[in-house]
Amino acid sequence: MSTTLEQVEKTAQLSKNNQLSLMIFQVQFPRDGVQPPYYGLNVFKVREVLEARAYEISPIPDANPLVEGMIELRGVYLPVIDLPKWMGFDMTEEDRDKSIIIVADFSHNFVGLRVSHIHGVEEKEWTDIKPAGNYKVDVNTNQVVNHTYLENSETLCFILDIEKLLIEAMPSMAEKIFASAEDVKNNNNEFNFSSQLVEKTILFAEDSQAIQKYMGMVFDNLKLKYKSFDNGRLLLDYIQSLHSLDEIAMVFTDLEMPVASGHTVIKELKLNPKTRQLPIIVHTSMTSDNNQREVLEMGADYFIGKVDTDLILETISKVDEKYFKN
To answer: What pLDDT was estimated at residue 19?
Structure first.
Protein backbone atom coordinates (compact mmCIF):
# COMPACT_ATOMS: atom_id res chain seq x y z
CA MET A 1 0.00 0.00 0.00
CA SER A 2 1.39 3.44 -0.92
CA THR A 3 2.21 6.00 1.76
CA THR A 4 -0.71 8.18 0.59
CA LEU A 5 -3.18 5.29 0.78
CA GLU A 6 -1.84 4.31 4.18
CA GLN A 7 -2.41 7.88 5.41
CA VAL A 8 -5.97 7.92 4.01
CA GLU A 9 -6.73 4.55 5.63
CA LYS A 10 -5.21 5.64 8.95
CA THR A 11 -7.19 8.90 8.89
CA ALA A 12 -10.42 7.02 8.14
CA GLN A 13 -9.83 4.68 11.08
CA LEU A 14 -9.05 7.60 13.40
CA SER A 15 -12.27 9.36 12.32
CA LYS A 16 -14.40 6.31 12.96
CA ASN A 17 -12.95 6.04 16.46
CA ASN A 18 -13.61 9.69 17.30
CA GLN A 19 -9.92 10.55 16.89
CA LEU A 20 -7.90 12.86 14.67
CA SER A 21 -4.33 13.73 13.80
CA LEU A 22 -3.32 17.36 14.34
CA MET A 23 -0.44 19.05 12.57
CA ILE A 24 1.01 21.33 15.25
CA PHE A 25 2.69 24.57 14.15
CA GLN A 26 3.68 28.06 15.27
CA VAL A 27 3.32 31.36 13.43
CA GLN A 28 6.21 33.10 15.22
CA PHE A 29 9.77 32.08 15.98
CA PRO A 30 10.92 32.00 19.64
CA ARG A 31 12.25 35.31 20.95
CA ASP A 32 14.45 35.70 24.05
CA GLY A 33 13.84 32.08 24.94
CA VAL A 34 10.03 32.53 25.00
CA GLN A 35 8.02 29.97 23.03
CA PRO A 36 5.13 31.52 21.05
CA PRO A 37 1.71 29.80 21.06
CA TYR A 38 1.08 26.51 19.28
CA TYR A 39 -1.74 25.93 16.79
CA GLY A 40 -3.26 22.80 15.27
CA LEU A 41 -4.75 21.86 11.89
CA ASN A 42 -6.42 18.54 11.07
CA VAL A 43 -3.90 16.53 9.06
CA PHE A 44 -6.78 15.40 6.83
CA LYS A 45 -6.85 18.93 5.35
CA VAL A 46 -3.09 19.13 4.78
CA ARG A 47 -1.90 18.24 1.30
CA GLU A 48 1.77 19.28 1.44
CA VAL A 49 4.31 21.20 3.48
CA LEU A 50 6.67 23.44 1.48
CA GLU A 51 9.82 25.40 2.24
CA ALA A 52 8.67 28.95 1.48
CA ARG A 53 12.03 30.09 0.11
CA ALA A 54 11.72 27.61 -2.78
CA TYR A 55 8.60 29.31 -4.19
CA GLU A 56 8.33 32.74 -5.74
CA ILE A 57 5.29 34.75 -4.67
CA SER A 58 3.53 36.50 -7.56
CA PRO A 59 1.50 39.50 -6.40
CA ILE A 60 -2.24 39.64 -7.08
CA PRO A 61 -3.55 43.12 -8.03
CA ASP A 62 -6.13 44.52 -5.56
CA ALA A 63 -5.87 41.45 -3.31
CA ASN A 64 -6.73 41.60 0.36
CA PRO A 65 -3.63 42.47 2.45
CA LEU A 66 -3.86 39.04 4.07
CA VAL A 67 -3.19 37.39 0.70
CA GLU A 68 0.50 37.67 -0.13
CA GLY A 69 0.08 36.50 -3.72
CA MET A 70 0.17 33.26 -5.66
CA ILE A 71 2.67 30.44 -5.90
CA GLU A 72 2.85 27.89 -8.69
CA LEU A 73 2.84 24.28 -7.57
CA ARG A 74 3.17 21.79 -10.43
CA GLY A 75 1.23 23.99 -12.82
CA VAL A 76 -1.47 24.97 -10.30
CA TYR A 77 -1.61 28.49 -8.83
CA LEU A 78 -2.46 28.76 -5.13
CA PRO A 79 -3.10 31.87 -3.03
CA VAL A 80 -0.79 32.20 -0.03
CA ILE A 81 -2.36 33.63 3.13
CA ASP A 82 -0.22 35.50 5.62
CA LEU A 83 -1.38 33.64 8.73
CA PRO A 84 0.88 35.64 11.12
CA LYS A 85 -0.58 38.92 9.83
CA TRP A 86 -4.15 37.66 10.37
CA MET A 87 -3.16 36.94 13.95
CA GLY A 88 -1.53 40.32 14.48
CA PHE A 89 2.13 39.32 14.14
CA ASP A 90 4.74 40.67 11.72
CA MET A 91 7.39 38.43 10.20
CA THR A 92 10.87 39.82 9.49
CA GLU A 93 12.39 39.06 6.09
CA GLU A 94 14.73 36.64 7.82
CA ASP A 95 11.80 34.84 9.46
CA ARG A 96 9.93 34.78 6.16
CA ASP A 97 12.93 33.14 4.48
CA LYS A 98 12.92 30.37 7.11
CA SER A 99 9.12 29.95 7.07
CA ILE A 100 6.94 27.09 5.87
CA ILE A 101 3.87 27.07 3.62
CA ILE A 102 1.19 24.52 4.52
CA VAL A 103 -0.87 23.60 1.45
CA ALA A 104 -4.38 22.85 2.72
CA ASP A 105 -7.68 21.84 1.15
CA PHE A 106 -10.94 23.36 2.39
CA SER A 107 -13.92 22.11 0.37
CA HIS A 108 -11.71 21.84 -2.73
CA ASN A 109 -10.36 25.37 -2.18
CA PHE A 110 -6.59 24.88 -2.09
CA VAL A 111 -4.66 27.57 -0.23
CA GLY A 112 -1.19 28.07 1.18
CA LEU A 113 -0.91 29.07 4.85
CA ARG A 114 2.38 30.68 5.86
CA VAL A 115 3.64 29.54 9.27
CA SER A 116 7.01 29.79 10.96
CA HIS A 117 7.62 26.24 12.14
CA ILE A 118 6.07 22.75 12.11
CA HIS A 119 6.24 21.25 15.60
CA GLY A 120 5.00 17.80 14.54
CA VAL A 121 1.88 15.62 14.30
CA GLU A 122 -0.07 14.39 17.33
CA GLU A 123 -3.04 12.04 17.54
CA LYS A 124 -5.94 13.20 19.71
CA GLU A 125 -9.33 12.02 20.85
CA TRP A 126 -12.08 14.46 19.90
CA THR A 127 -12.93 14.46 23.60
CA ASP A 128 -9.49 16.10 24.09
CA ILE A 129 -10.60 19.00 21.88
CA LYS A 130 -12.34 21.62 24.01
CA PRO A 131 -14.46 24.63 22.96
CA ALA A 132 -12.66 27.98 22.96
CA GLY A 133 -12.51 29.81 26.28
CA ASN A 134 -10.74 32.67 27.99
CA TYR A 135 -6.96 32.30 27.93
CA LYS A 136 -4.12 33.94 29.80
CA VAL A 137 -1.92 33.44 26.73
CA ASP A 138 -1.72 36.33 24.23
CA VAL A 139 -4.14 34.98 21.63
CA ASN A 140 -7.10 36.48 19.77
CA THR A 141 -10.04 34.37 20.91
CA ASN A 142 -12.15 35.55 17.94
CA GLN A 143 -9.88 33.45 15.73
CA VAL A 144 -9.78 30.38 17.97
CA VAL A 145 -12.56 27.83 17.65
CA ASN A 146 -11.22 25.08 19.97
CA HIS A 147 -8.18 24.14 22.02
CA THR A 148 -6.31 21.10 23.28
CA TYR A 149 -2.92 20.46 24.93
CA LEU A 150 0.36 19.22 23.53
CA GLU A 151 1.17 15.59 24.31
CA ASN A 152 2.25 14.95 27.91
CA SER A 153 2.17 18.64 28.64
CA GLU A 154 0.06 21.51 29.97
CA THR A 155 0.98 23.64 26.94
CA LEU A 156 -2.10 24.93 25.14
CA CYS A 157 -2.59 24.24 21.44
CA PHE A 158 -5.18 26.42 19.72
CA ILE A 159 -7.32 25.33 16.79
CA LEU A 160 -8.13 28.21 14.48
CA ASP A 161 -11.43 29.01 12.79
CA ILE A 162 -10.01 28.55 9.29
CA GLU A 163 -13.38 29.16 7.62
CA LYS A 164 -13.42 32.59 9.29
CA LEU A 165 -9.88 33.20 8.02
CA LEU A 166 -10.83 32.33 4.44
CA ILE A 167 -13.88 34.55 4.55
CA GLU A 168 -11.82 37.48 5.90
CA ALA A 169 -8.82 36.94 3.61
CA MET A 170 -10.86 36.41 0.47
CA PRO A 171 -13.77 38.87 0.51
CA SER A 172 -14.90 37.69 -2.93
CA MET A 173 -15.40 34.21 -1.44
CA ALA A 174 -17.30 35.68 1.53
CA GLU A 175 -19.43 37.80 -0.79
CA LYS A 176 -20.27 34.76 -2.88
CA ILE A 177 -21.12 32.66 0.19
CA PHE A 178 -23.39 35.18 1.88
CA ALA A 179 -24.89 36.38 -1.42
CA SER A 180 -25.89 32.79 -2.19
CA ALA A 181 -27.57 32.60 1.24
CA GLU A 182 -29.34 35.91 0.59
CA ASP A 183 -30.47 34.78 -2.87
CA VAL A 184 -32.45 32.02 -1.22
CA LYS A 185 -34.94 34.71 -0.13
CA ASN A 186 -35.47 35.78 -3.74
CA ASN A 187 -35.91 32.21 -4.97
CA ASN A 188 -37.94 30.93 -2.04
CA ASN A 189 -40.98 30.30 -4.23
CA GLU A 190 -39.04 27.60 -6.09
CA PHE A 191 -39.13 25.42 -2.99
CA ASN A 192 -42.54 24.07 -2.29
CA PHE A 193 -41.80 22.44 1.05
CA SER A 194 -44.48 20.32 2.68
CA SER A 195 -46.32 21.69 5.69
CA GLN A 196 -44.95 18.74 7.72
CA LEU A 197 -41.37 19.93 7.10
CA VAL A 198 -42.15 23.62 7.69
CA GLU A 199 -43.69 22.79 11.07
CA LYS A 200 -40.62 20.82 12.22
CA THR A 201 -37.15 21.98 13.34
CA ILE A 202 -33.79 21.38 11.68
CA LEU A 203 -30.94 20.70 14.11
CA PHE A 204 -27.36 21.47 13.15
CA ALA A 205 -23.98 21.12 14.84
CA GLU A 206 -21.20 23.47 13.67
CA ASP A 207 -18.33 24.96 15.64
CA SER A 208 -17.35 27.73 13.21
CA GLN A 209 -19.27 30.91 14.05
CA ALA A 210 -18.90 32.11 10.44
CA ILE A 211 -20.52 28.95 9.06
CA GLN A 212 -23.20 29.03 11.77
CA LYS A 213 -24.12 32.53 10.61
CA TYR A 214 -24.25 31.41 6.97
CA MET A 215 -26.43 28.36 7.70
CA GLY A 216 -28.74 30.45 9.86
CA MET A 217 -29.21 32.85 6.93
CA VAL A 218 -30.07 29.98 4.59
CA PHE A 219 -32.68 28.48 6.96
CA ASP A 220 -34.12 31.90 7.85
CA ASN A 221 -34.57 32.77 4.19
CA LEU A 222 -36.23 29.42 3.57
CA LYS A 223 -38.53 30.21 6.52
CA LEU A 224 -37.52 26.93 8.17
CA LYS A 225 -37.14 26.55 11.92
CA TYR A 226 -33.72 25.51 13.20
CA LYS A 227 -31.62 25.12 16.32
CA SER A 228 -27.80 25.28 16.29
CA PHE A 229 -25.19 23.63 18.53
CA ASP A 230 -21.48 24.41 18.92
CA ASN A 231 -20.44 20.75 18.95
CA GLY A 232 -21.71 17.22 18.42
CA ARG A 233 -22.15 16.37 22.09
CA LEU A 234 -24.47 19.34 22.70
CA LEU A 235 -26.62 18.22 19.76
CA LEU A 236 -26.69 14.59 20.94
CA ASP A 237 -27.56 15.61 24.51
CA TYR A 238 -30.41 17.81 23.25
CA ILE A 239 -31.86 14.99 21.15
CA GLN A 240 -31.53 12.61 24.09
CA SER A 241 -33.45 15.06 26.29
CA LEU A 242 -36.49 15.04 24.00
CA HIS A 243 -39.45 12.82 24.89
CA SER A 244 -40.39 12.61 21.23
CA LEU A 245 -38.65 13.31 17.93
CA ASP A 246 -41.90 14.29 16.20
CA GLU A 247 -40.81 17.94 15.97
CA ILE A 248 -37.36 17.22 14.47
CA ALA A 249 -37.05 17.36 10.69
CA MET A 250 -33.40 16.41 10.10
CA VAL A 251 -29.86 16.79 11.43
CA PHE A 252 -26.99 18.64 9.77
CA THR A 253 -23.58 17.95 11.25
CA ASP A 254 -20.04 19.14 10.66
CA LEU A 255 -17.34 16.47 11.07
CA GLU A 256 -14.60 18.40 12.89
CA MET A 257 -15.99 19.46 16.27
CA PRO A 258 -14.81 19.44 19.86
CA VAL A 259 -15.99 16.87 22.43
CA ALA A 260 -17.87 14.75 19.87
CA SER A 261 -17.12 14.78 16.14
CA GLY A 262 -19.66 14.36 13.36
CA HIS A 263 -18.61 10.71 13.10
CA THR A 264 -19.74 10.25 16.70
CA VAL A 265 -23.02 12.03 15.93
CA ILE A 266 -23.70 9.63 13.05
CA LYS A 267 -22.66 6.56 15.04
CA GLU A 268 -24.75 7.34 18.14
CA LEU A 269 -27.86 8.40 16.22
CA LYS A 270 -27.78 5.31 14.00
CA LEU A 271 -27.12 2.88 16.88
CA ASN A 272 -30.07 4.18 18.91
CA PRO A 273 -33.42 2.69 17.77
CA LYS A 274 -35.15 5.91 18.90
CA THR A 275 -33.07 8.11 16.55
CA ARG A 276 -32.11 5.66 13.79
CA GLN A 277 -34.62 7.07 11.30
CA LEU A 278 -33.52 10.72 11.64
CA PRO A 279 -32.15 11.96 8.30
CA ILE A 280 -28.48 12.98 8.74
CA ILE A 281 -26.75 15.42 6.38
CA VAL A 282 -22.99 15.86 6.74
CA HIS A 283 -21.84 19.44 5.97
CA THR A 284 -18.05 19.57 5.98
CA SER A 285 -14.91 21.04 4.43
CA MET A 286 -13.34 17.53 4.55
CA THR A 287 -14.56 16.73 1.05
CA SER A 288 -12.39 13.90 -0.25
CA ASP A 289 -14.15 11.03 -2.04
CA ASN A 290 -12.82 8.67 0.62
CA ASN A 291 -14.30 10.78 3.41
CA GLN A 292 -17.66 10.98 1.66
CA ARG A 293 -17.76 7.20 1.18
CA GLU A 294 -16.76 6.67 4.81
CA VAL A 295 -19.57 8.75 6.36
CA LEU A 296 -22.21 7.35 4.00
CA GLU A 297 -21.13 3.82 4.96
CA MET A 298 -21.48 4.83 8.62
CA GLY A 299 -25.12 5.73 8.00
CA ALA A 300 -25.24 9.40 6.99
CA ASP A 301 -27.92 9.99 4.38
CA TYR A 302 -26.35 12.87 2.44
CA PHE A 303 -22.96 14.59 2.12
CA ILE A 304 -22.43 18.30 1.31
CA GLY A 305 -19.12 20.11 1.00
CA LYS A 306 -18.89 23.55 2.62
CA VAL A 307 -20.22 25.87 1.34
CA ASP A 308 -22.72 24.88 -1.37
CA THR A 309 -26.07 26.65 -0.97
CA ASP A 310 -27.66 25.03 -4.02
CA LEU A 311 -26.78 21.57 -2.75
CA ILE A 312 -28.14 22.39 0.73
CA LEU A 313 -31.49 23.42 -0.85
CA GLU A 314 -31.52 20.38 -3.11
CA THR A 315 -30.79 18.06 -0.18
CA ILE A 316 -33.51 19.56 2.04
CA SER A 317 -35.94 19.05 -0.88
CA LYS A 318 -34.83 15.40 -1.20
CA VAL A 319 -35.37 14.82 2.52
CA ASP A 320 -38.79 16.46 2.29
CA GLU A 321 -39.74 14.30 -0.69
CA LYS A 322 -38.53 11.10 0.95
CA TYR A 323 -39.76 11.57 4.53
CA PHE A 324 -42.57 14.12 4.65
CA LYS A 325 -44.47 14.37 1.36
CA ASN A 326 -45.55 10.73 1.21
So the answer is: 79
